Every structure is written in C-alpha cells, then in structure tokens.
Amino acid sequence: MPIRLYLFSGLRLLALAWVVNVSLGVATFAWAVPAAESPATIRAAVEAFVRAGLPPGGEKVKIDVQGPAPGLRFPQCADLRTAYFGNANPYGAQTVEVRCTAPSVWSLYLPVRVDRPQGVVVVARALQAGHVLTAADLTTVERDAARLPPGAETDAQALVGQVLRYSVAAGQPLVQSMLTGPQLVHYGQSVSLIAQGMGVRLVALGQAMADGRVGQSVLVRNVQSGRVVSGIVDALGQVVVPLQ
Fold first, then answer.
1. Along the chain (244 residues), what's the average pLDDT of each consecutive run of 10 residues?
2. 92 forms bridges with which residues in the sheet?
3. What is the pTM of this model?
C-alpha cells in the first residue's frame, strides 16, 4: 500500500527527508532544523554599532551587551541591522534594536550598558566633618563617569588643606560643595589689610575681628585709624577691601 504525505494548509516545511525502513515496513520522517544566528554574532553587531556612535575620546569605554537570552533561537540572517530604541545618549543604559530583513524577518531588543571610565578623587577612609585633608586621605580611582556626582574632583593635590564640611564614607567621591577652604584668619590675629581698585592699592596693618576662610567676608580693624571695615580673605590670608 503506498504511503501518502498530506501537507495541510498553513504548514511550512523547510526540509523533509523520507526514509523507508524496508525490513520493518515503517516510514520515518526527519525534519532539517534551520541554521540559527549565533548569539555572539548578534552581540558583536550591537557592540560595533554602539562603539561607532561614541564621541571622540571614547576608546576606553566598556560596552556590556546583555542577551540574547539562553534558549532563544533566531534564523540565520543575511541582512542584520541595528538601531537605538528610545534614548540615544552615548553613555549609561541603552536599548538597541536588532532587526533581520532577509531571508527571514525577525527583531529583538537588547539592553546595553556603556561605561566611560574617569579618574576621580575619593577618600581612602571614613573622615569626620571638620577634618583637614592630607595627601594620605586621598586616592584617585577610575569610576564610570555616568554614575559620578556632578562636579566630582579629579585633582587630589588641589584638595590638600581643604576642610570637610560633612562626614564622608571610605571610597566616596569628593565634590567642591563638600569642602571649604582652610581657616587662614583667626580672631585677634594681625593681618595685612589691602584696599585696592581703580588703579589704587593701599596696604595697612589690621586686626581680625572674626575667624575667616578663603573667600569669606570678615571684619578687620585698621590698627592705625581704628576704623572697622569688611573685607574678603584671599588665599594668602590677607583681607582685601575693594575700592569702588
């Protein structure tokens, strides 16, 4: 009796091998599994796409492509295309669409993390508010720039002598708002009182009426005239009174 194979409407057969076991009189059908696109190829295409869109100086970035999920199979693709889905910020968390147009049509979306290492100053140990920073307190490490607080400091040497306004934990990046200048003027101290402006510079001996840090306004009594004036403490510990 002849063996007949009926193809039902809507069933697509990619390949069919019909093997007849004569001794048993049994017909065996074997399906040829279509070739699958390699997950490594998909990830490589996404990484190349993201790297090509980085601004100049992005050679050191770390690109982490997540997926495809284990167990997912996609037919081999002759025309693999990539595009950003949603936010196209070159750094941080991204989503990339991978689309095949031939010979089969399929698409998937892969999350991508783009980290840009940047040197940043952090404290080497936990420190209390009011601590005067020394070189031993500071170290420079590389962190992802997208996860750093705005204004994170990058020059450790420039921070030596600065005073912490808040307590900080070990490894915490430093920003200028957490720091204040050292106290250069103390109450009762003799200071140089400088009046300058409009091409004039006058220097007199003064006595500080309050403590003061760099950039702070303090009252100073002119020792010669007895007059009390307000001035700004500069980086040399002098009190400058602008003439207008």
1. 34 34 44 79 94 80 91 92 84 92 94 91 96 95 89 93 93 94 91 91 94 91 94 92 87
2. 114
3. 0.54
Token code pair at residue 180:
């204040």
Nearest to 236 by CA among 209, 212, 204: 212
Angle at 75 between CA 72 and CA 78, to 5 degrees: 135
Helix (H) or strand (E) holding 29: strand 26-31
Residue 90 belongs to what domain range? 39-115
What span, in angstroms and rounded, lies between the C-alpha atoms of 150 and 37? 42
| Helix, strand, or coil (residue 220) | strand
Other C-beta atoms closer than 10 Å to the C-beta of 193 total 24
Contact criterion met (CB below 8 Å) for 153 and 176: yes
In a domain, 34, yes or no: no
Same domain, 65 and 45: yes
